[in-house]
Write a structure and sequence with these properties.
Blueprint lengths: L16 H9 L8 H14 L8 E3 L8 E5 L5 E5 L4 E4 L4 E5 L9 E6 L2 E9 L5 E4 L9 E4 L4 E2 L3 E4 L2 H14 L5 E6 L9 H12 L3 E4 L3 E2 L10 E6 L6 H13 L4 E5 L6 H7 L5 E6 L1 E3 L6 E4 H17 L1
Parallel strand pairs: 3-12, 3-13, 13-17, 14-18, 15-16
Antiparallel strand pairs: 1-2, 2-12, 4-5, 4-9, 5-8, 6-7, 6-9, 7-8, 10-11, 11-19, 15-17, 18-19
Helix pairs in contact: 1-3, 3-7
Length: 319
């Protein structure tokens, strides 16, 4: 094995905050991912001429709103979910949660119904039931998401929906230099999943791919902090196969990528669907930690974003 000199690991470019902000601003709660898919299609068609390798774009009704990018001879697949948490309008100003939003009263919510654009206010009653405050009734079934207030400092980015538009952003950055691999943008993760099962079936049967990385965003916790590097999750509610996780840790150490080892007993991701699938997938959640998950003020350190991209680039070459 060639020894890597200290400080010689490849470093990613500065965070493209304009692209990340555009992704965060797309209204696409679980079950309504089409707008993100459409944005990604336009982005890939425009930008892939500048990538080192141009991918095959695979989509269609058999994949619902999911999108597959296939590069070369794939060995590993990156899954990144496109959806966000939010709310569905019920009756009499009531709101139902999509996923597990965590917002305070007076949070601004946005959407659109048959009468036009909506910007309303979130309220809760004494039993903590959610309602909207608006000048007219909103059509039943309308989805509402947090109004985006994107804030950047020298070290941090703060915005709603960094989970998981940052995971999508990471996958797009990896795509710029990827030679062999699959990138799949998935749906419904925040509300229980539902697409990874048939996607795993497809990639396993078509290319015999059975290794997966989950490009998603995890939590700042008592053992995982801001600014100390990308988190490699050794477990959450689900248990990835330890031998695969150890390979990922070894690669992070080999290339001296700042990283943190996460061990949790709760939380899940698209990896849970892989574990429950009938296909022999090895998988691991690898992502930047954020503070204030599922609130309008998710916060991620830029160093953790950069190390996430760096590690994914090496993993896709070596796994």
């Amino acid at each position: 094995m060639k020894k890597i000199k200290k400080g010689s690991a490849k470093k990613s470019q500065e965070v493209d905050t304009q692209l990340l902000k555009q992704l965060c601003e797309i209204h696409a709660p679980s079950g309504q991912e089409g707008p993100v898919k459409d944005f990604l299609l336009q982005h890939v068609k425009k930008e892939s001429k500048n990538w080192k390798h141009k991918p095959q774009i695979i989509l269609g009704e058999q994949f619902q709103d999911c999108l597959i990018l296939k590069f070369g001879k794939p060995r590993t697949v990156i899954f990144a979910h496109m959806d966000s948490v939010g709310f569905t309008v019920r009756y009499f100003n009531q709101l139902l949660s999509i996923g597990s939003p965590d917002a305070e009263t007076e949070t601004r919510l946005v959407g659109r119904d048959s009468l036009g654009e909506i910007e309303c206010e979130l309220e809760f009653d004494k039993e903590n039931h959610a309602f909207y405050k608006f000048g007219r009734p909103i059509d039943r079934g309308t989805t509402l998401t947090y109004k985006i207030i994107f804030h950047e400092t020298k070290e941090y980015i703060e915005s709603a929906y960094l989970d998981n538009r940052l995971g999508v952003y990471n996958a797009l950055k990896v795509a710029e230099t990827l030679k062999d691999g699959l990138i799949i943008f998935t749906c419904w993760e925040e509300h229980g999943g539902g697409t990874v099962g048939f996607l795993a079936d497809y990639v396993y049967r078509k290319w015999n791919v059975r290794q997966a990385l989950i490009s998603d965003i995890t939590w700042v916790s008592d053992g995982v902090d801001h600014g100390k590097g990308v988190a490699i999750s050794m477990r959450d509610r689900n248990l990835p196969r330890k031998v695969f996780v150890e390979k990922i840790i070894h690669i992070a150490k080999k290339y001296q990528i700042d990283h943190q080892l996460e061990v949790e007993g709760s939380g899940s991701s698209d990896g849970g669907e892989l574990q429950r699938s009938p296909f022999p997938f090895d998988w691991c959640f690898v992502g930047a930690p954020e503070q204030h998950a599922h609130t309008p003020h998710e916060k991620v350190h830029k160093h953790d974003i950069k190390t996430m991209i760096d590690l994914y680039n090496y993993l896709m070459k070596e796994l």
